[in-house]
Amino acid sequence: MNNSIGVITNANGRQSVDISASKYVQDVNMTVYASTVNNTMVSNSIILRFIAGEPSSLNVYANPYVVASADVLTPQDMPDVHRTDVTAVVTDEWGHPIVGQSVSISSSNVTQGSITGPAAGVTSDSGEFTTQFTLGSGMYGEDLTNGVTVNAVSGSLSGTCQIYYTDNSFLSVKSTIEPNTSVKVNDTNGNNVSTDYMYTSDAQNSQNENFIRFGNASAGRYEIYGSYAYDPAKGDVPYNMMVLTSPKRLGQASDYDSAAKVAAKSFVANMTNSQIDVVWFNVSSNVVKHFTVDDSFNRSSINASIDGLSARGGTSIYLGLDKAIGDFNSPYYKSGNKKVIILLSDGYSQTPTNDLASAETAADQNITIYTIGMGMPDDVNLGAIANATTGGNYSRVYTDAQLNDVYSGICRDLQDVVANYTEMHILSNCTYVDSNWLPDVEYIMGSGYVSYPNGTERYEDPDPLPAPDPDGTYSIVWKPGVIKLNDTYSVTYSLKVLRDGNITPIRNDSYIYFIRDDGSNDIMHFGSETLYVRGNSNDTMAQSNSTIKVDITNPLPKMGAKADWPSQPIEWQVNYAGNGTYHQIIYLIDTNSVEIPVSEGYNSNANDTFSYSLPTKSLSDGNYIIRVYADDGDDTGEDLVTLIVSESKGQIILE
What we know:
The protein is mainly β. Among the domains are: 55-168, Immunoglobulin-like (Sandwich); 419-533, Immunoglobulin-like, CATH 2.60.40; 548-645, Immunoglobulin-like (Sandwich), CATH 2.60.40. The chain is built from six helices and 39 strands. The strands form eleven sheets. Strands 20, 21, 25, 26, 27, 30 and 31 form a seven-stranded antiparallel β-sheet that branches. Strand 25 and strand 26 form a beta hairpin. The chain is flat and about 115 Å long.
C-alpha cells in the first residue's frame, strides 16, 4: 500500500515529517518528490528499516525453585544441592524473544544467597540469559513461604523470582512415554491479497464481522493501516485481522462458502465412518445434528446442518460444551468411539469460569477438546479449555488456509491415536506402624509440573491426591489421557522422604494402564528405583508398638558452625500409655560412633513435652546423632536425629 503526504519546504528549502512505527519487521523505501519552478520533477529515496519491537516484558524463574538448606551435605562428586539455575527471558509486547539484550541478575540479600554464575550477560536467540544462584551458608532449616528474592534488570524492565530451601530430603522423578517428538504449529505467515481500492463495512450485514474487502490486485505483501477510538475506561480494543480468500469467517445461513463452513465440511469429508455431531452456541445453544455416521448416505445432511449455521452476538462457550457433552451421554453416541470436541470461536467469552468448569467436566469423561480461534478470539480462555483435557490443543489461525490446515491436523491426530485413555500409576512402599500403613515418601503438594504433547506446560497435582493403599503401597496417579503416535508426555514432581534407610520411590510394579483404539486394554511397567537415606529427622516409623513413643520435634535438624551455634535446643514429645513413671536419657553419638550420655531425668507418668540445650561450641566438625531414650521398667521408646556441625553441604539425588 502506498501512502503520501504533501509538505512545503521552509525558507531554507527544508522540511521534516514524522514516521509512525510499523507492525512489521521490514525495509520500506521512502521517496521524496519535488517540482521546480519550471515544473521539472526531481526525487530522492532512502531505505527505512523497521526492526523488532522494543523489549516489553522480563520474566524470571528458577529451576529448580527449591534447594537444600545449609544443613544438608553435598555428596562427593555430585552437583552442589544449594545451587540452582536462574533464567531471565526478555520479550517484546507480542511475546517475541529479544536477542542481544543486556541483563543483570542479583540477589536481594547476599547473606541469604548470591549469584555465583555470571551476574550480567546478553540474551540468546531464545531471549534467555541463565546464571546460577547459591544459597548462603548460614541458611538452615526450611523456608517454603518467603524464600530468597532474586532480581533481574534489563534496561527499564525488571522482574523477580523466589527461591526456597529445605532441610528435608527431596526426590525428583521424571517419567517419559517414548518415543519423543515435537509438535509443530503452523506459523502465521501467509500471502495477503490487496487491491487498488477498498471499502469497509460495519456489522450491519455481517453480525460480528467487520471487514475490508480487496479486489483486482495481484498477489503480494501489503500493509493495512487502521485506527479505533480508545476509551481509557474500557482499555485497548482487541482487534485482530484474518486474511480470507472466502467472503467471511463465519457468515450467515446463506453463506455456504464462509471460511469456517468450508473448513468444517472438508473435515467431515476426511472422517468417513466416524460419528459427527453439530452444535451452535451464542447466548444460548442447541444441537442441530445429533451424532450421525459420516457415510455417503448421511454426509449431505451433515453438510446441510453446517451450512445452516449463522453467526450471532454472544459467546457463551460453556453452553455449547454442555450440549456436546450431553450428546456423548445420549443414545445417539456409539459407545467405544473416541470422544472429541472441536470448538471454533471468534469472540471473547462472557463466562470464562463456566467455560473452564465445563471443560473439566469433559476431561472427567475422557473427552478431548481441540479449540480454534479466529478473528478476535480469547486466546487465554480457549487455551485453558483445551489444556483442561488431555490430547487436545489450541490453535490460533489468521487465514482460511491455516484453518484448513488445523482441521487436517486434527484429522491426522484422531487417526494416529495409540491409546484413547491412559493412567500412570507410580507406586512406592509404606511402612506398617501401629496398625496403620505410613508412606515412606510423600508427594509435595503443588510440585507436579506436567508437559503435554502439544507443548502446554502447567503445574498440576495428581488425581486423585496420593494416599496409602490398603495393600501397603503409596500410589501417585497421573492421567495423560489420549496418547497419539510419537507423543511425549512428561511430569516432574517432588517427594518428601519420611524415613531413613532404603526406600523405593518407584517400585517395579509401577505401571501405565491404557485403552487402545479397538477397546482392548493393556499395561506397561516401570523399572524400579531405590534410594538409601541416612539421618532423616522425620523418621518416626521405627517405633514398635511400645506404650512409650518419643518424637523429636526440634531440630529438624538445625545446626551450624561452632561460632554460630554455641548451643543447640533439643525438643521432643513423649506419648505415654503405660501405668508407671518413665525415666529419660539423652545420648550424643559422636563421629567415632561412641555413645555418650549428656543428660538424664525428665521423669513423668503422662504425655509431656521436654527440652534440653546441647552445648556444641566445643564440638568439632562432623555428623552427630542425638538419641532420646525413655524407659518405664516395662517398655522403652526412643527417637534419633542427626546434627551436622559443618559448613559443608549436601543433597539426595535419584537419576
